[in-house]
Amino acid sequence: MLRYLPFLLVLALWIYAFIDCLNTPEEEVRGLPKVVWVIIILLFGEVLVGPVAWLVAGRKRRGPAGGATPSEWHRNQRTTFVAPDDNPEFLNSLKAENGKDESLLKDWEADLRRREEELKRREEQSRSDEES
Predict the structure, then answer these.
(1) Would the pTM of this model clear 0.85, i.e. be above it?
(2) What is the mean pLDDT of residues 28-56?
(3) For the chain, where are the alpha helices, taking DSSP H only?
(4) What does the pLDDT look like over 4-16, one tens digit per residue?
(5) SS3 of 46, please?
(6) What letter would DSSP give residue 103?
(7) Hey, what's the torsion of the CAs at 84, 85, 88, 92, to 10 degrees?
């Protein structure tokens, strides 16, 4: 199984370079037209010349967003984690949800009382109808 590993790595790099070349916009391709890069990758893929040439010289390298490397960005960012019980926005949202739940519960209780009274009236009415 280990003897197939180099072949699989070459194949993976070949496929990656081919798909990357196809997905790269034409204005980001350097040196040669995109069609020529595809042909180079396909023809010289077995010996790794085509895929490596594409990855090194074929496409423009993009700088990091905002001009800072990820490590610089992390160094400059402060950790702003706030526990939920210390977060006023979270506590206010809980109060709002509790208020909604309480009003809903009051509505249900009022509806239940109304229905119970209605049932009692019907039972009393049916008793009085039976007695007459």
Answers:
(1) no
(2) 88
(3) 5-23, 34-43, 49-53, 70-76, 88-131
(4) 898 888 899 999 9
(5) coil
(6) H
(7) 90
